[in-house]
């Protein structure tokens, strides 16, 4: 299954870090958070990544261009400049770095990837949130639901897209972006989508949460996988420092690999 990571936003609420680099490249434990997200997904078998670039996308490109050599054992002949890989990188990911526009919104970025995604089921997540969510169970839940989309529902403070779930906690009755909801469930990313969702996204101004998830919920086409474990985004400097402290503890809860 292909995995899309939305990595093009400006990250203005974390401007202390994002003035110099895009938010997905802000480091936790010496690695950019996008590396942590990819490690989580790769652990569950999702290793074919499509990174939707925008703001400072060249920074992300340079990082991945260097990764093969950096993570391999190599010999360099300083006289000729020739290099030889002694032991290849153990990381077997395929990373497609796709420019999706500076001002393109979340749904528009996904729409731009339609030619690469094709007609298969795929997963989308944001480039700033980590979790110990069992993605294999999310995918299996999605397939059982028969719906066009399944969102991972989590329970942090309700500052993100709020989900109103039915009694079985398996389907979404209403989606409200950035609303306070009594149930306390929010959109945690790690969203499984069918190719039919491209019909809902009309261009660069489409918003994933409004033009897709809200409409699917209204049509009874949005399911939810309720994750009761760890989830945390990195939206502010305080949250970045908290994730650093968890990593430094030696047992960060999202390190499932």
From TrEMBL:
Domain of life: Bacteria
Domain Nucleotidyl transferase: 2-231
E.C. code: 2.7.7.33
CDD domains, per database record: G1P_cytidylyltransferase
Record-linked Gene3D superfamilies: Spore Coat Polysaccharide Biosynthesis Protein SpsA, Chain A (3.90.550.10)
Keywords: Nucleotidyltransferase, Transferase
Keyword Nucleotide-binding tagged: no
BP-aspect Gene Ontology terms: O antigen biosynthetic process
Organism: Limobrevibacterium gyesilva
Example of a GO MF term: glucose-1-phosphate cytidylyltransferase activity
Class of the enzyme per the UniProt entry, highest EC level: transferase
Protein name as it appears in the record: Glucose-1-phosphate cytidylyltransferase
